[in-house]
From TrEMBL:
Name of the featured protein: DNA-binding MarR family transcriptional regulator
UniProt entry tagged with the keyword DNA-binding: yes
InterPro entries: HTH_MarR-typ, MarR/SlyA-like, WH-like_DNA-bd_sf, WH_DNA-bd_sf
Any one of the GO BP annotations: response to stress
A Pfam family recorded for this sequence: MarR_2
Molecular functions (GO terms): DNA binding; DNA-binding transcription factor activity
PANTHER family xrefs: TRANSCRIPTIONAL REGULATOR, MARR FAMILY (PTHR33164), TRANSCRIPTIONAL REGULATORY PROTEIN (PTHR33164:SF107)
Organism lineage: Bacteria, Bacillati, Actinomycetota, Actinomycetes, Streptosporangiales
Domain HTH marR-type: 5-138
Keyword terms, alphabetized: DNA-binding
Length: 147
């Protein structure tokens, strides 16, 4: 029997890619949005008036990538850009009614997807994996210098 592959970084990349493809298919079918768009919508929902710079930090993306993402979200009538009340050069992002509806349509599918992952991994492994990935994400973000 071959030894199990312990190249954790490689395995994480492959798993993330496969899971993202599966989740994208499901989110597109349920709500017409990708998981990247869903992540942005969740962030705007949780922090109404968030700036693009704050959204980039929240999503762990470059500001140029978030500019493109927000442009697509605005063109699809999922978010609006309004002048920021305190920062004259920034815009505040808010969900539109269509954005709220897309989020509401995607949420049950993401809940099912997570339930399926929990069933495949088992409750304990799922919880431990989620905690470990959260720790890795938190630790990595603290060691990365900000703007």
């Amino acid at each position: 029997m071959p030894e199990p592959d312990e190249r954790l970084y490689f395995l994480l990349q492959r798993a993330a890619h496969q899971l993202r493809l599966a989740a994208d298919r499901r989110c597109l079918a349920a709500a017409g949005i990708t998981t990247a768009q869903l992540g942005a919508l969740f962030a705007v929902h949780d922090h109404p008036g968030i700036t693009q710079q704050q959204l980039a930090r929240t999503l762990g993306l470059r500001e140029s990538a978030v500019t493109s993402l927000v442009t697509r979200l605005a063109a699809a009538d999922l978010v609006t850009r309004r002048p920021h009340p305190n920062e004259h050069r920034a815009t505040a992002l808010h969900l539109t009614d269509h954005g709220v509806a897309a989020l509401d349509a995607a949420r049950p599918e993401i809940d099912r997807f997570n339930a399926e992952l929990r069933a495949r991994l088992g409750d304990t492994t799922f919880t431990q994996t989620a905690a470990a990935l959260s720790k890795l994400t938190h630790d990595a973000s603290e060691s990365t210098p900000g703007p």
